Every structure is written in C-alpha cells, then in structure tokens.
Amino acid sequence: MATLKDLAVVMIADSESAKSLDRPGMARLLAMVDAGEVETVIIAKLDRLTRSVKDLAVLLERFQRRGVSLVSVAESLDTGSAAGRLVLNIMTSVAQWEREAIGERTRAVLQHKKATGKAYTRSVFGFDAVDGRSVPNPAEQAVIAKMWELRGQGLSYHGVADRLNAEGIATKRGGVWASQTVCNILESVKAA
User: Fold this and answer.
1) Which CATH number among 3.40.50.300, 3.40.50.80, 3.40.50.1390, 3.40.50.620 corresponds to the domain 4-114?
2) Best CA proximity match to 171, nearest among 131, 132, 143, 191
3) Calpha distance 116→120 (Å, rounded)
C-alpha cells in the first residue's frame, strides 16, 4: 500500500486548455510517467486531460507501455480494463465533436456578423456599440487624450494608471486601471 510519501501530485491547471498536450502541467506528468514514478494517473474529469481523440490515443498508448492506468473520477472510468478503455475513447470522441461543433457555430456567427457589418466583439475603451456599429464615446475619448498627455509628461504606464485611479476615473466596466490596460489602449490607438 502506498504511503502519502510515495504519492506525487501533478496539477494540470484549469486555466490550461485541454485542446493541446503542449502545456507545462502535462509535460511534468509525462516526465513522471516516462521515469516510472507513476502507477496510476487520476484525473478529476476527462475533458481536463484532453479533448482530442488522437491525443488520448497517444496518452493511453504511452501509459500502457509503461504500465500506467488512467482513472477519471467524474466519469468513474479506469483504463485498467478493456471496457474502461472503450468507454473512455467514446467519451473523448464526444468531447472532440463538441469542441469542433462549438468552433463551427462560432465561426458561422462571426462570419454572419461581419458580412452584415455588425460589431462582433465587445466595445473597446473609447468606443460604444450602437446598432451593431462601433461609434466614438466622447467621455472615453477624453480619457484617452488624458492618457497621452500624462505619457507626454513622462509618466510610465503604471504612473498613468495610478493617476487615473487616484482621480476616480473608472475603466469601461467600472474597474480600476492597470498599467497593461493603459498600454493596450494606447498601443491600439497608435496602431489604428
């Protein structure tokens, strides 16, 4: 029986997309599998591991060559049996189909909005969406002018953000300013 000392936990962060195996948490896990440090990989949910049938096949083959089982808690699956591997492959196929179908629907909606001249992103600072079109917001345009003025006075992006926050000027969504937000706005205006 394994003791707590014998157990190793590798976190694959929720912020990492399961669309690809090329992510830091997965690299650490595979290094442990290849080094023979793991007997069973336990995941909370299958779609956090991968949503690709091809990638799942690669992982399962790699695990099998090294005598490693895969257990998914949410789906109650264990690849230690043929039935578990079959169900796992079916579920991954469904997850991959779902990802591809969402992508197709999103592309179709964006193409339609683009073709009809409708705005298909949320409004950026300095502009508002009116009847599906982007129009300048005078108050926000004045804040952008103030940003340029402050930068002209030698303030860093961080300094500009601090000044806007000190003066009680909110972001488009009512939040506080960050230096990266100021930088992004001024860079997008410069590029336009």
Assistant:
1) 3.40.50.1390
2) 143
3) 10
Burial class from Cβ neighbours inside 10 Å (0-12, 13-18, 19+) for residue 77 reads: buried
Helix residue ranges, H only, the chain: 24-34, 53-65, 82-115, 138-152, 157-166, 179-191
CA distances from 37 to 58, 124, 150 (A): 19, 49, 56
State pLDDT tens for residues 59-110: 888 998 998 888 888 888 888 888 888 887 888 788 778 888 998 998 898 8
Length reported for the chain = 192
CB 151 within 8 A of CB 129: no
User: Which residues, in sequence order, are CB contacts of 67 under 8 Å at separation 6+?
Assistant: 39
How far apart CA 188 and CA 179 sit, in angstroms, is 14
CB-based contact 7:44 (threshold 8 Å): no
In whole angstroms, give the CA distance from residue 146 to residue 182.
11
Q: What is the pLDDT of residues 6-38, one digit of tens each?
A: 445 555 544 556 667 888 888 888 999 999 888
Cα gap 107→102, rounded to integer Å: 9
Q: Parse the chain into domains and list their residue ranges.
A: 4-114, 127-191
